[in-house]
Amino acid sequence: MKAARFIQMATVISLATLGGAATASAQSKTFTISWWGYNGEKMNANIIEPFKKICDCNIVFETGNNADRLNKLKLRDGKGVDVIYLSDSFSQQGIEQGMFKEIDQSKIPNLKEIYELGRAPQGKYGPAYTIGRVGLVYDSAKVNPPITSWNDLWRPDLKSAVSLPGITTTAGPMAVIQAGKHAGVDPYADTEKTFKAVEALKSNVVKNYNTGSELVNLISTGEVRVAMAQDFTLASMQAAVKTMTWAKLKEGDIATVNTINISKGSENVDLAYKFIDFILSKDVQQKEAEQGVDAPINTKVQLTPDQAKIWTYGAEQVGSLSLISYSKMNAAKTEWIDQWNEVFGK
Amino acid sequence: MTKLAKWGLPLPATIAVVVLLIIPVALTIATTFGEAKGAFSTYAAFFNSGFRRAVLFRTLEVALITTALSLVIGFVTAYVIAQMPGRLKSIMIIAAVFPLLTGVVVRSFAWLIILGKNGIVNDTLMSIGLITEPLSMLYTEGSVIVAMVYLFVPLMILTLTGVLEGIPRDLTEASASLGAKPIPTFLQVILPLATPGLIVGAVLVFTGSFTSYATPQLLGGEKQMMMGTFLYQRAMVTFDWVGASTVAAIMVVITIAIVSIMSRIARRLNPMAV
Amino acid sequence: MPTRVHPLLGAFAALVFLFLLAPLVIIVGASLSDTTYLTFPPQGLSLRWFANIFQIEAFRRTAITSLQVAFLGTALSLLIGVPAAYALNRYRVELPRWLSTLFVLPILVPEIVFGFSLLKSITIGSGLPVFPSLILGHALLVLPYSVRVVGASLASFDFSIEEAAMSLGCPPLRTFLTVVLPNIQAGVIAAFILAFITSINDVSVSVFLTGPGISTLPIQILAHMEQFFDPTIASVSVLLMLVTVGVMAIIEATLGLTFLTK
């Protein structure tokens, strides 16, 4: 093993000297942000350029989806990036894996301006910077009577008409939680009855989706008429099928948030606090919302009804939502994935 | 001199594979034997689950069918291409590569348009009155195989055209001029000489389809889950790298077994085949 | 000298091409649609999704990275792969059999496990910067094409020609370049094409080997698709095809298109 290790190092080092010359060495003060990577132009104009003036630093991005970036952060033992944007269930996993620093709320004055729900959604860790909903959408031209309850998913007239989020997506486990409620049990305690209810859904499900674009394709080609979805996909679905409607559910929708955390190995902690405070400020949140990037979580943001219609917006709407227990959900997730596979895999 | 060349020429590539692949992957797979419940507990757990065994068998079945279909389709097409005059031949090869230039998401969208409930195939069949209700073609083993064959036929064509080109034409002509019928010429001259190419193609297609995950996920859904998707779930959703590595180790062992069986068959057809 | 092809075989090949090209018609159609979602037949014609590719800075930047990585990675893999393929065929009897299996391993190990392991033990273990490790990872990923596809062409090469050249005093390297290489050209080009395309499309390995400041085009496209479901992805595919056709046209004008074959 030692010899192998030696050859390995020798090869790597010789190759590194050959190829490594091309990449510049790190600058003295570089702030690294891990995030998804879409909407780069707006992110740059609204957040990065103004923040550069505040911090007098270089800004570098690591991009990719939640799982990719969290996996890499873990492999590097929490080093390499300063702040990381994640959706709620992934940031909970990062917390459980010890990847983030605890947050000192006094260093983020703008926290006071955001909705209570978003200040510390996952214990002592990072705040939410945007809020969304998971609910049901349906084609009002083809689904009659309209969908008014989570229980409608089980309706016999919706045979081969439904798409659920796959168990491995952000919203997937929420389908399991709703199935538990439908069966009248606690989904975390009574897995058996919960998955009986999931199984009862099977004949209504055409295919479960794994990405937003897959869902939009299923809707636009008419394969699916009813779906459990996140609100940001609605506009695209309506562009494809005008009659797609966000259902008004009597039980209410489920909240989802995206969080921002300071990584355990951050070497620019003060800057990280400044950055988080900056993206929660009214000015940034206002711009991001007006340009259709993210729904605002700052209570002082003012939107016209037209700007607001694509977002979860306003105290009343936000107040009607509830967060799920991420720690409970993540603890159950492995078991749920197996059960879900068994139900839909047969 | 010969000795130096014999061992020296493959050395850089061998070192690269050992250092960059075998050692790192072995270190990862080694973690699967470190479980508290015993060295093979994760493997026992895998094979004790009926669902996981079903996923394994389905993956094997889909990969083998895909390989067989791609072999036949690719071989015949490559044979025809190899007979074409130079310029047309190049154009056909380029055209065959085009499917590989499309991303998996748009490609599966195209299949949605072709095979979907309101798709082209169903519309055509209904309009000529062959069927009255749209057929459910998507999210079946069939749709996964079609989409995979689509992806692997180009690879087979590219691999085999080069090989079939290399077969000296005077050999087939000699065989024909000696009075051999086309079929014996094919079986006794062309097929053995093409065997190295067929085996390389078969190995590339089998390994490629056995480990694929995006195509089965998009065109098969959960009902057609394959090993690649299962591994992906473990690694990227539950961050269970021990579980993922277990699946990977099982996949590697099975693929090596199948690849060596293929090589053995190939050597029977043509002792020169690697 | 082309020989005649049996009409049935010709018809079969024509059907295969129909199968291969029909989905592309849908993709081209979808890329031209003036809608914010993928649809076919296209509704309204627009080139805006093509313009989108050029307007988004991240696409431009990552496309350059992808091209660099694919080119250098493929070149590196051919540089070490072709000599290996040559030796495996030239000294077939003397070299151990497992050696040829060894070179299939990079596509045999599931890609994400390969990428994960490489990141864990090489990049992090040795502190190798992101860009060279991306190139190394891709070179290894496509090595099977370099070794095996070229090897398949070499299998039908008659090595006695090479011996004849060498016995006439031609030095080994020159013999290889002037006698062997022209005979396996189609195989080398096929290997290059397959390797290049595999590298430029790769997601699973790149996911792990990219890092702060460096990303590749397929990963950037996936990032875009987290939020937008528009036909940009179809446009990228069509653009890749157009670039291929363009490159071929240039080759046709300079070298003649028969370069792909002997």
Main interface pair? B-C, 99 and 106 residues
CATH architecture of the largest domain in chain A: 3-Layer(aba) Sandwich
Sum up the overall morphology of chain C in one term: globular
User: What is the number of domains of chain A?
Assistant: 2
Radius of gyration of chain C: 22 Å
Tally of contiguous helical segments of chain A: 14
Number of strands of chain A: 8
Quote the beta fraction of chain A.
5-15%
Task: Describe the 3D structure.
The complex is a heterotrimer of chains A (346), B (274) and C (262). Chain A folds into two domains: 27-131 and 258-314, D-Maltodextrin-Binding Protein, domain 2, CATH 3.40.190.10; 132-255 and 326-345, D-Maltodextrin-Binding Protein, domain 2. Helix content of chain A is 42%, strand content 14%. Chain A has 14 helices and eight strands. Chain A has helices at residues 2-20, 40-55, 66-75, 88-96, 116-119, 172-183, 191-201, 212-220, 234-240, 269-280, 282-290, 305-308, 315-319, 326-345; strands at 30-35, 58-63, 83-87, 128-139, 162-163, 226-230, 244-246, 254-262. In chain A, strands 1, 2, 3, 4, 5, 6, 7 and 8 form an eight-stranded mixed sheet that branches. In chain A, α2 links the parallel β1 and β2 (58-63). In chain A, α4 (88-96) crosses α14 and α6 packs across α7 (191-201). Chain B is mostly helical and 274 residues long. Chain B is built from 13 helices and no strands. Chain B is globular. Chain C has helices spanning 7-31, 48-55, 57-90, 98-102, 105-108, 111-126, 130-155, 159-167, 172-183, 185-201, 204-209, 217-227, 232-254. In chain C, α1 packs across α13 (232-254), α3 (57-90) runs antiparallel to α10 and α8 runs antiparallel to α9 (172-183). The radius of gyration of chain C is 22 Å and the shape is globular.
Brief descriptors of the model:
heterotrimer, B: 274 residues, mainly alpha, MetI-like fold, 13 helices, 77% helix, C: 262 residues, 0% strand
Please describe the topology of this protein.
The complex is a heterotrimer of chains A (346), B (274) and C (262).
Chain A: H1 2-20, E1 30-35, H2 40-55, E2 58-63, H3 66-75, E3 83-87, H4 88-96, H5 116-119, E4 128-139, E5 162-163, H6 172-183, H7 191-201, H8 212-220, E6 226-230, H9 234-240, E7 244-246, E8 254-262, H10 269-280, H11 282-290, H12 305-308, H13 315-319, H14 326-345
Helix pairs in contact in A: 4-14, 6-7, 7-14
Chain B: H1 2-8, H2 11-30, H3 41-48, H4 50-83, H5 86-97, H6 104-115, H7 120-127, H8 141-166, H9 169-177, H10 182-211, H11 214-220, H12 227-236, H13 241-269
Helix pairs in contact in B: 4-8, 4-10, 6-11, 8-10, 8-11, 9-10, 10-13, 12-13
Chain C: H1 7-31, H2 48-55, H3 57-90, H4 98-102, H5 105-108, H6 111-126, H7 130-155, H8 159-167, H9 172-183, H10 185-201, H11 204-209, H12 217-227, H13 232-254
